[in-house]
Design goal:
Layout: H1 6-37, H2 41-45, H3 59-65, H4 68-100, H5 106-118, H6 123-132, H7 150-162, H8 165-173, H9 178-189, H10 191-207, H11 210-215, H12 224-233, H13 252-284
Organism: Paenibacillus contaminans
Family: Belongs to the binding-protein-dependent transport system permease family.
Protein name: ABC transporter permease
């Protein structure tokens, strides 16, 4: 065991203190949201909330979950996230595998991909293209323009290049074509990468709200993040008006915190299931340049 000097111990203490501060900066706001959302109206009005509910209540959650618009926005977001992630993985993996194979013009296509990574068209040209293709007020407007992330494509390509070439050669000798090699050999070996980039794409779709603001004019088609913007940022009290409510609604702040928690927890549930693939999938793409 190495003997640590006084300077090493001081540096370890400073690092530990910084990590505790960073962790507290992340956890404390979430605890406050949790506490306010589960607090009763009396506790909130008395401003008697710190980091844990003193008097538990589910009024805010009953109020939100009785609202058809909120439930519909959750379903819309789940649909966009699942379908969008599957489309992202399908297009990104196939294009990345194609660019990992030798063919005429590969470097030109790769340069075009890198060019879009460095220089984007901008909001207005993208909006005009989406409008011209008739995707306004369609959930496909939130999926098709972001089908392939250039960064994920490049890392995915590096991952495919790290797979031994002998596997492809053996499959070609056995008579397999490129499509059969890709779907029956390469993809099964790519589960860590697929899980990692699937998580990246899923989180991006779930948290996306700016594209929904741009392309969705019909409030009934809003995903949860756009609806949250109306509730929290715009503070539109008419956004959530639960049907068949016989009692007075809970305070707006508790409703906002409950909505934030309900919109955050579903995507957090994915992390424990994909954690074992996460670090491995990120590192595999950097094995071979």
């Amino acid at each position: 065991m190495l003997h640590k000097t006084l300077g090493d111990r001081v540096m370890d203490g400073i690092n530990a203190l910084l990590l505790v501060i960073i962790a507290a900066a992340m956890v404390v706001p979430f605890l406050y949201i949790f506490s306010v959302s589960f607090s009763s109206m009396e506790t909130f009005l008395q401003n008697d909330i710190i980091l844990w509910p003193k008097e538990w209540a589910l009024d805010s959650y009953r109020y939100i979950l009785s609202n058809d618009r909120f439930i519909h926005s959750i379903y819309t977001t789940i649909f966009i996230t699942v379908l969008g992630t599957l489309c992202n993985l399908a297009f990104t993996s196939t294009m990345a595998y194609g660019l990992s194979r030798p063919f005429f013009g590969r470097n030109v296509i790769l340069f075009l991909v890198l060019f879009t990574f460095l220089f984007s068209a901008g909001i207005i040209p993208t909006y005009l293209i989406v409008k011209a293709t008739g995707l306004i007020d369609s959930v496909w407007a939130l999926i098709i323009p972001v089908l392939i992330s250039p960064w994920n494509l490049i890392v995915f390509r590096q991952f495919f290049r790290s797979i031994p070439e002998e596997l492809n050669e053996a499959a070609l000798i056995d008579g397999a074509g490129e499509f059969k090699i890709f779907y029956q050999i390469i993809l099964p070996l790519s589960k860590p990468a697929l899980a990692t980039f699937g998580l990246f794409y899923a989180v991006a779709h779930w948290n996306s709200y700016f594209t929904g603001i741009l392309y969705l004019n019909d409030p009934s088609r809003w995903p949860i993040q756009v609806l949250l913007r109306q509730i929290v940022v715009v503070n539109d009290s008419s956004t959530l008006q639960a049907q068949q409510m016989l009692t007075a609604p809970p305070p707006a702040e508790t409703v906002q915190m409950a909505a934030i928690l309900l919109a955050t927890v579903p995507i957090l549930i994915l992390y424990p299931f994909l954690q074992k693939h996460f670090a491995k999938g990120v590192m595999l793409g950097s094995v071979k340049g």
